């Protein structure tokens, strides 16, 4: 399946004194892309929380930086579903500078489905897993 793609314009607040995106902000970009993907699938984080009574904590993250992104750059962020497990999902990300066409960063985030009342991981609902298949890497 093709990845989910969105664009992100680097704001002043994303950068450090050298006007380069601070490394920690790549994880914010990953999460913003994840949020937009769920919206595209017809779900919001609030709806997921209400409908299924769970939240999606991060249990593992990784980012490899390839080239600096700077204030004003337009980035294309791609998200693929790398793996759907019983209680977890691994998202893969790539970020390309749309102007230079250079890869800026790549990484992944592993989330678990955790029941808010029970306080531990639970199986991913079938309906949600089926929606995530839309962007599963083949």
What does this 3D model show about the protein?
The protein is an alpha+beta fold and 138 residues long. It has one domain (4-135): Hotdog Thioesterase (Thiol Ester Dehydrase, Chain A). 22% of the residues lie in helices and 36% in strands. It has helices at 25-40, 45-52, 126-132; strands spanning 4-9, 54-55, 58-65, 74-84, 88-97, 103-112, 114-115. The protein has a five-stranded antiparallel beta sheet with strand order 1-4-5-6-3, covered by helices on one side. The radius of gyration is 16 Å and the shape is elongated.
Name some characteristics of this structure.
138 residues; alpha+beta; Thiol Ester Dehydrase, Chain A; 5-stranded antiparallel beta sheet; two-stranded antiparallel sheet; 3 helices; 7 strands
- CATH fold title: Thiol Ester Dehydrase, Chain A
Helix-strand string:
EHHEEEEEEH
Count the DSSP helices: 3
**Shape, please?**
elongated
Domain count, please report it.
1
Give helix % range.
Answer: 10-25%
Biggest sheet, open or closed, and with what strands and sense?
A: 5 strands, antiparallel
CATH architecture: Roll
Give the end-to-end Cα distance, rounded to a whole number of Å.
Answer: 6 Å
Strand-helix topology:
Blueprint: E1 4-9, H1 25-40, H2 45-52, E2 54-55, E3 58-65, E4 74-84, E5 88-97, E6 103-112, E7 114-115, H3 126-132
Antiparallel strand pairs: 1-4, 2-7, 3-6, 4-5, 5-6
Short description:
This protein has helices at residues 25-40, 45-52, 126-132; strands at 4-9, 54-55, 58-65, 74-84, 88-97, 103-112, 114-115. The chain has 138 residues and is an alpha+beta fold.
